Amino acid sequence: MKLSRNLALKIHFFLDQCAPPIIRDSEWLMRITFKLLYRDKADLFWDFMGKASKMTEREFCEVYQEIKTVLMERETDLNDDCIDEIYRQIVGQTVLDVGCGQCFLAGKISKRYQLTAVDIAIEPELSVRYRNISFKEANVERLPFRNEEFDTVICAHTLEHVRNIFAGISELRRVTKKRLIVVVPKQRPYKYTFDLHLHFFPYEHSLRTIMGPNHGAVFCKDVGGDLFYVEDKDERLMERLPGSRQSLSELS
Q1: Angle at CA 9, nearest 5°, toward 227 and 76?
Q2: Does residue 247 contact residue 222 with C-beta atoms inside 8 Å?
């Protein structure tokens, strides 16, 4: 079933904001829902939250490969407003897209920038379709790049899946030379997840807290229903962003 990210956000809003927790976390209701949506793959979703921390990296990757056939089809998890905002925030010429998925965003960015794309598993046909992109299979917790190798690092709809999220954030910062852009879904935490999420960010301060203080944060805001975070290593870049001083005071 094909579904745009904007429509998916509306469905998530209903489930997360309108459905009472006693219903949203109901075991019998979620079992029925998972069975209807995912059929023979339902148990992979049902058991994921409890088993993820005990899996080997290979087992973790295999789960994601196995559920591809039952996930809602959409070109990207990003909404239109976030895509536009990412374009506006890129600085420099070398860009790293961490958690590239099907390369919807990376494919567009690579038309203007020197683009490297990373994911835990890269489908072989992507390297054929996007010949101007350098692909690497890697876990965000251990990125195979030098310190400050990329002017801009983008990590969109990925951190919510990372088991050791603090190791992942540390690696993103390590390979960033100028600007780090992070986008996560704005969702309340529930026991049963439709997208195999391990981390949840219901409010702006939820993401700010995870990212930690004193890292050159420029702003964290709601963009089209997702949370959009930017931090800079170069203070001169902050000066050029409209409203950045106000945002910095809010973050401190």
Answers
A1: 80
A2: no
